[in-house]
Design a protein that fits this description.
Structural class: mainly alpha
Number of helices: 22
Strand content: under 5%
Largest sheet: none
Radius of gyration: 23 Å
Mean pLDDT: 84
Low-confidence stretches: 1-9
Oligomer: single chain
Number of strands: 0
Helix content: over 70%
Distance between the termini: 40 Å
């Protein structure tokens, strides 16, 4: 006779193990090498238990393949086919995740996926921050006293093994997921002891996001959280008392952080829009790494160079293995020593695709992002809408579809939410 324990493991553990594996992958995208190997492991295990393929006729599916399709269609426009194949390899996730999630008959429980993702990713960044303090306490103490605070986010991101803007984009998304889950618990009428855990995860992800201190990620989260809480208050009838509690909660975390790192406000005020009159003349600025490395003036200078180059090849671009060496050569020819020294790339995904694929690349990329927003609005998902906003904003000031973590981050979450859209349509 089957006992209750066996019934539990048969009915519960198998499904939850699947969602735990999905959440582990989503939580470890920041670790490039581990994430790639884990994807192979997860893919093989998943295909063993794969249910029947279910083909949908919806046009939204085609949008997810655009980055992969562009690299295939313009494969001929490269000098090194070996390097082109290596670049193309990263984009195979835009094929893998639709196979794993979209084209399978069984449904995906998004709430359970987000819950496990929140718990696992929050725990990972907490443990890494504690480990970072133990190993680099002297440096962190120097940051608190105001010494080279601008390096703080880069130091912690490098310690984790990730690129600071890409890392903070994902931590910003995690923070919103934590806010979403905490708000959902607050909206439920039943008392739930998990609220304190969710608030703890929210506080920890917020603190790490502030530590990394990417201005765009912080700004988008501030706007997104205010908008979502206003929506929860006006539409979902979240009580004013709970709104006040969450607002005070945010206020305490922000105040504590600003007291520890008062230079954060200085970074927003003085380093974002400073020295805009020096576009194209960055080498005349003293200590440019400290003053304008991540400033708008640097990006505007790069964008002016890219537009000048793209005007010469507007139809087909320069190819995705040729464009960066040619861009760096253009820095040399135009005497942009600071940009050449740091091999500064485009830092705008639309201009990056203009340089690589010409006007067709820009048009298809616009369709790629429009498709995401269409799905988010159709399924009325605050989480996916936030994902669309943070990913679009990040790609306006950086180029995350050239890095594995950005590519995988996009393909993974887009596939999950498109699956949700298709299920609702049917």
């Amino acid at each position: 006779m089957t006992n209750k324990l066996e019934i539990f493991f048969k009915s519960y553990a198998k499904e939850d193990l699947y969602y735990i594996m999905v959440a582990i992958y989503a939580s470890t995208i920041i670790f490039n090498d581990f994430s790639k190997y884990f994807l192979w492991f997860f893919g093989i295990i998943f295909l063993i238990f794969y249910s029947k393929i279910h083909l949908y006729r919806s046009k939204v599916i085609w949008g997810i393949f655009i980055p992969l399709a562009l690299h295939v269609l313009f494969f001929w426009n490269n000098e090194s086919y070996l390097q082109a194949i290596k670049q193309l390899e990263k984009f195979t996730v835009f094929l893998v995740f639709p196979i794993l999630f979209i084209f399978q008959r069984s449904s995906i429980n998004l709430k359970k996926t987000l819950t496990y993702y929140s718990s696992i990713f929050s725990t990972i960044i907490i443990l890494f921050f504690i480990y970072y303090l133990c190993v680099n306490f002297i440096d962190f103490k120097g940051f608190i006293t105001g010494k080279d605070v601008w390096k703080m986010g880069y130091e912690f991101s490098n310690f984790v093994g990730s690129h600071a803007p890409a890392f903070n984009m994902q931590v910003s998304f995690l923070s919103f997921v934590n806010l979403y889950l905490a708000t959902n618990i607050a909206l439920s009428k039943n008392k739930n002891s998990f609220l304190l855990i969710r608030l703890f995860f929210l506080a920890s992800s917020l603190f790490v996001m502030l530590i990394i201190n990417t201005r765009l990620a912080i700004s988008i989260f501030a706007l997104g959280s205010i908008s979502y809480l206003a929506y929860a208050f006006s539409v979902k009838r979240l009580s004013a008392k709970k709104i006040l509690f969450i607002s005070v909660f945010f206020g305490i975390i922000s105040t504590v952080f600003l007291l520890m790192f008062p230079s954060t406000l200085e970074k927003f005020k003085n380093k974002t829009f400073n020295q805009l009159d020096m576009i194209g003349k960055l080498d005349q600025i003293e200590k440019p790494e400290e003053k304008i490395y991540g400033s708008l003036v640097t990006r505007l200078t790069v964008w002016s160079v890219v537009l000048k180059m793209s005007a010469k090849k507007p139809i087909i671009g320069y190819g995705y293995t040729n464009c960066y060496p040619l861009l760096f050569h253009e820095y040399k020819d135009s005497n942009q020593r600071f940009l050449l020294k740091h091999s500064y790339r485009v830092h705008n995904q639309f201009l990056d695709y203009l340089l690589k694929f010409g006007l067709s690349g820009v048009i298809l990329l616009i369709i790629f992002f429009t498709n995401k927003f269409y799905v988010a609005l159709k399924i009325r998902s605050a989480v996916f809408l936030y994902f669309c906003v943070i990913f679009l904003a990040a790609n306006l000031f950086d180029d995350f579809l050239i890095k594995y973590e950005g590519i995988a981050f996009s393909a993974f979450w887009t596939s999950l939410f498109i699956k949700s859209y298709l299920e609702k349509e049917e």
